[in-house]
Design goal:
This protein is an alpha/beta fold. The chain has helices spanning about 40-50, 55-65, 65-80, 100-105, 115-125, 160-170, 190-210, 215-225, 230-240; strands at about 85-90, 105-110, 130, 145-150, 170-180, 240-250, 255-260. A seven-stranded mixed sheet has the order 3-2-1-4-5-7-6, with helices on both faces. Helix 2 (about 55-65) packs antiparallel against helix 7 (about 190-210). It is globular.
Length: about 260
């Protein structure tokens, strides 16, 4: 892969005639460590994830105290993928999140704008149709997928509303969206402890297991700045999704939002 975004050419998934280029970026070296800012410039965020790609899954497991595995199981239940359905897994990274859908017999497309993540994922699971793409401008035709899902990635998209509209566009009528994202704990005392963990404990822990611990400072900041559960639900409705609902996991540390595209 080079710096050009490539859409999948698999006949099962249509592509739009509007390929575009992502800004070429450099990986981390001894003199420079990539850390995105909260204005979420796409090339900064993509470069940051390129830098942490090799140890990303391990780092997530450590920082979440193993909870990320439980959260991903809940996502799989909510998506409820069936044999022969087409599932788009956005911000799929190395495709850890995509495997449960493939195991049901569904056709899953792991999509991410970090080429480093895709390259690591392709080494692990070469049979999956990894696709480079920007969530705000997806390289797929209208009404392609039975379900679109994104886990811990929507928060990193520069234009959340545009991404939600794009997810709606590529979903078939009657299809669904499932979003798993860090949110706001519902119990005030726990919320205070959680915020302290994010800003004080998370960076030192990340330093011991991550190739780019500064990236996790950005992640902590982005979690604090993210809308609460009703706020994200309202964004989904404005993008066209109906029957929007959410469910809190781990006391609201994470929330699962789901919506449907009316037939």
């Amino acid at each position: 892969m080079d710096g050009t975004t490539k859409a999948t050419t698999d006949p099962q998934v249509g592509t739009t005639p509007r390929p575009h280029r992502t800004k070429r970026h450099q990986g981390c070296n001894n003199d420079q460590v990539t850390r995105a800012s909260l204005n979420k410039q796409p090339h900064e965020v993509a470069s940051m994830f390129d830098d942490v790609a090799e140890r990303y899954d391990l780092t997530n497991d450590v920082l979440s105290l193993g909870q990320d595995r439980r959260w991903r199981k809940e996502v799989a239940r909510a998506v409820d993928a069936r044999p022969a359905q087409k599932i788009l897994d956005l911000a799929a990274g190395t495709a850890t999140s995509s495997l449960p859908f493939a195991q049901t017999g569904a056709y899953v497309v792991p999509c991410d704008f970090s080429l480093g993540m895709l390259q690591v994922g392709k080494k692990k699971n070469p049979w999956l149709p990894f696709t480079a793409g920007d969530a705000t401008r997806l390289p797929f035709k209208d009404d392609t997928f039975d379900a679109v899902t994104i886990s811990f990635g929507l928060r990193n998209v520069q234009d959340t509303d545009a991404a939600l509209r794009e997810m709606y566009r590529v979903t078939k009528p009657g299809g669904r969206v499932v979003i798993c994202e860090f949110s706001h704990p519902t119990w005030a005392p726990f919320r205070t402890v959680y915020t302290e963990y994010l800003m004080r404990a998370l960076p030192p822990v990340a330093r011991s297991v991550s190739s780019n611990p500064d990236a996790y400072v950005y992640l902590a900041e982005s979690i604090r700045a993210w809308p609460d559960q009703p706020g994200l639900a309202e964004k989904l409705r404005k993008a066209g999704w109906s029957r929007v609902a959410w469910r809190n996991l781990t006391g609201g540390v994470v929330a699962l939002h789901r919506g449907f595209k009316e037939s």
